[in-house]
Amino acid sequence: MNLKLYFAPGACSFVPHVLLEMSGAEFEPCMVKLHKGEQNSADYQAINPRGQVPVLVNGGRPITQILAIVLHLDQIFPQMGFLPTEPMARAQALSTLAWMNNTVHPTFTHIFMPQKFSDQPDVQAALKPYNTQLFRGMLGELQAQVQTLPNQGQPWLSGERFGPLDAYSLTLTRWGTMAGIAPEAHPALWDFVEKVAAEPAVARVMARERLQLNMTATA
Where in 26-178 does DSSP place strands (E)? Predict the structure, then answer.
């Protein structure tokens, strides 16, 4: 199996990066420096014309989009149990993953890159605080999910096994600190992402991407 992952440090590509590291399979991590515009280079555009990360290349064939990549990794590494196999549990896990990717993630983009949504400085300035409040509420919703885990008798968001929901929860919570949402705002969620960060494979990926978990002081 010839696997290559194109990722950007701290981006949502952290999710498949962690899953690949957990799988124990050999893969080639390829960093894309978004701040330097490498996603717009001719070489990268040939891999993904949309200029986005992540891209997983398996046997020379590229796969884009988080949901597609996660599903593919779940299929090629079934022994890892990244997603539940029981139909209802699987559907619920995919529902949460889709929400993280198509709702929570874009809300942060409105904070971090408001220029993608308007070329007017006053509109950009208004987008940041408005979406920060929305994002704060979404982290509260994620915290509520985390708080149900003890009652359900499961250690991770989709069950007994670590999976993409757990990796994505760390990414989203870390982004929250970049938006000035301190860990104290969601203590149960913060405790959970610290547990995620302590997983050996997660720690290795964080070291490779040179990530600091709490970015409040540098926001």
Answer: 28-31, 55-58, 61-64
